[in-house]
Write a structure and sequence with these properties.
alpha+beta; about 40% helix; 14 strands; 11 helices; seven-stranded antiparallel sheet; about 400 residues
Length: about 400
């Protein structure tokens, strides 16, 4: 499968200007492609192909004074920007036809120069390289300092340079992992576990373990409010406002990084210790529209389950999602008696049939395990499933699927 390995970049002042130039040129080419196709649609002309757009918006555009500065950046960056526009239109048309999974996708829109999150991609054709000193040598940018938190297992096929809203730069490499090596990294185990996700405790395991919720956003709320208040008092367009905006963005980035690190550590531990994992398929979008919205977003259940899913695929484990409508908190895990719904303030209850006293959350986790068919028996131990290859198409998104990165 394919994974992203992200490493922090520390470009010098001149390299920052070169990166800003590359970000701007890529954005202009993308917007020109969207504008050209929109003009053709309004004029009733045929849909412009990628080859026509490349010739018109890059090759010919460099010859005119208004776009001559496109020659100051790598041509590969501009070509990859056109590919991003192509992918956006493909997703839009597939969404219209109903062949694309997930929510409906709108038509491609213009990218704003005010968007602080930018990205450019270099493929092998760009002849980027890693120097002997461990720097990332990018065409027309130079050798950029990289903070390597780990070694790359194989030679990457491309690198995406990303600037986030907090002003940080990252190099994101796409790596093809070795299934045999990945499977060998995890010890053999016949353990199974059920997980009940919550807010008071982030996760309750079927063995009785309760993992407290770190509540990163709640803990940083006072600092965030202060930074946001300072931002609101700055004059729009001023340098002080930009400094205040960076302060807010960095505070949010710190919260997001801490949450991601917590999810990675917990998901890796569960994958290492268990062969089969059962988890409830929660309606996060619906819960995010309730009074618990801030706490739900702070917990980050969707991100955690997504990590469990791809790590289970990578390391040959099995992840089973339980239907959210299964009455796991209403059923006695000892005798399977359905006792009906209970208010959230009831944390313990006694089964009327067998008299067993249950902790609400632990009982639910045990039922998640049972509902997934994960009861540990001497004759029914689960086996390792075959690895499923991940999608091979690299996107230009700013979020990336990878294990914890060093800040």
């Amino acid at each position: 499968m394919q994974l992203r390995y992200a490493f922090r970049l520390y470009p010098e002042p001149g390299q920052r200007l070169a990166l800003a130039r590359a970000f701007g040129c890529a954005r202009v080419v993308y917007n020109d492609a969207v504008r050209a196709r929109e003009d053709a649609r309004r004029a009733g002309e045929p849909f412009l192909t990628a080859g026509v757009l490349s010739q018109k918006l890059i090759t010919q555009a460099k010859q005119i004074p208004e776009r001559s500065w496109l020659g100051e950046v790598s041509a590969v960056v501009l070509q990859q920007s056109l590919r991003d526009a192509e992918a956006a239109y493909r997703n839009f048309f597939a969404s219209l036809k109903g062949t694309r999974k997930g929510p409906k996708t709108g038509a491609p829109r213009f990218k704003s120069r005010k968007d602080e999150r930018q990205s450019i991609r270099f493929t092998a054709n760009a002849r980027w390289s890693l120097t002997a000193a461990g720097r990332l040598n990018l065409p027309k940018i130079g050798a950029v300092k990289v903070k390597w938190s780990r070694t790359l297992p194989t030679t990457p096929s491309s690198v995406t340079v990303i600037k986030d809203a907090a002003g940080r730069y990252f190099a994101s490499f796409v790596i093809d992992t070795d299934p045999a090596a990945d499977t060998a990294r995890m010890p053999d185990t016949d353990q199974t576990i059920g997980i009940d996700l919550g807010l008071t405790h982030f996760a309750i395991l079927s063995d009785g373990t309760k993992i407290d919720s770190p509540r990163f956003l709640r803990r940083a709320e006072k600092k965030l409010k202060k930074a946001q208040r300072e931002l609101s008092r700055k004059q729009k367009g001023s340098k002080n406002r930009e400094k205040a905006r960076l302060k807010v963005a960095r505070a949010h980035a710190k919260v997001a990084d801490a949450r991601r690190e917590f999810h990675h550590q917990l998901s890796t531990r569960l994958i290492r210790e268990n062969q089969v994992i059962g988890v409830e398929d929660l309606a996060v979008k619906a819960l995010a529209r309730t009074s618990l919205a801030k706490s739900v977003h702070d917990a980050g259940w969707s991100q955690f389950v997504a990590m469990l899913e791809y790590k289970a695929t990578r390391y040959g484990r099995t992840l089973i999602k339980i239907n959210r409508w299964d009455p796991t908190s209403q059923t006695c895990s000892a005798c399977d008696t359905l006792d009906g719904p209970k208010p959230l303030h009831i944390r313990e209850w006694t089964c009327p049939a067998c008299g067993a006293l249950h902790d609400r959350d632990i009982n639910s986790a045990i039922n998640v395990k049972k509902a997934a068919g994960l009861a540990v028996t001497a004759c029914g131990a689960p086996v390792r499933p075959g690895l499923v290859p991940a999608q091979r198409e690299e996107t230009g998104s700013h979020g990336f699927l990878s294990e914890p990165r060093a800040a």
